[in-house]
Amino acid sequence: MVRAVTYDCDVLVIGGGIVGLSTAYAITRAAPGTRVTVLEKESGPAQHQTGRNSGVIHSGIYYRPGSLKARYAVRGAAEMVKFCAEYGIAHEVTGKLIVATERSELPRLHGLVQRGRENGIPVRELGPAQISEYEPEVRGLAAIQVGSTGICDYGSVAQVLADASGADVRYGADVVRIDRRETLGVAVRTADGSVVRGKVLVNCAGLHCDRVAMLAGDDPGMRIVPFRGEYFDLARPELVRGLVYPVPDPAFPFLGVHLTRGIGGGVHVGPNAVPALAREGYGWGVVRPLELAGTLGWPGAWRMAGRHWRYGAGELRRSLSRGAFTTAVRRLLPAVTSDDLVPVAAGVRAQAVLRDGTLVDDFLIQEGARAVHVLNAPSPAATASLPIGREVARRVLQLL
Description:
Helix content is 32%, strand content 26%. It is of the alpha+beta class and 400 residues long. Strand 11 and strand 12 form a beta hairpin. Helix 1 (18-30) packs parallel to helix 5.
């Protein structure tokens, strides 16, 4: 005789960032009465990628037409503005400039115009005089103005999602073991010895998503390689009116050092992108040998480094030299000095890297037996979190 299993919930979500909480919100909206438990190892929501980014609601202009990033960012930007308005969360649709400062960047800038139009995004091309009308202190050869970009407080968004979902959100719940049985479901043990049982597992663990997938018995086929993004605040915020970006290198998923006037009125400068020595390595002094060994033991990390070492060397130089970072900013904002840059909290990007060294450039969602794993959801995942949550919820409800 088989003893009946007592489930604590129908869906067990690991990770209390904006994607995990959006998933919980989407599940309970699509299937009222579904019991959802969210396990988050920190003392509150949005402690890592969600709460440490620049707060931009991205338009979707950068992303390959037809990709999940393009579709979900365009849709998600409009939905995020509506969500913030509905729940009284601080936000603003500001628009932004993407500025070419060298002739070699002009073809890429024109390529972004075309990509924006293919993605259904309003784009206006500007010459030097028109750039000055928007941003008097910014200099460039040409620019595009993207009207649908905005800013918001993603930490507040995450908290509202947690509250509005009706899920049982448990903080301080660090997952250490997962027992998954295809005919029964999943049992998760946390560091304090508690066990939570559910019918379907959702892995939204961000910087630890590959580890969680392996704990569940699935081979994700990738590893998270953490990249730290270092930020500064601008001591003279009056130099910048809104959001100003360089033309990104299409070979990388990073957008380059940019200027972002946030909800509070201050101007964020950054980030760069340097390898972190721990999954949560928010400074050079944070080193976790086992995590670092895991990164160095992944063949893809070495292949990526061999392929992109020149780019990486430039990012390292800007990390270690305030003067080099200032020089990068001055390409866009000539009036800035090193004294204008005040260090603030860094963030870490959870970047998925394949075995062959390829940087995964789209959102990556995989399914296993009684499990859905979100394995690559860096920027613009906060912007796209509502559509991502609905897609994960759709897959979860099919498994249920």
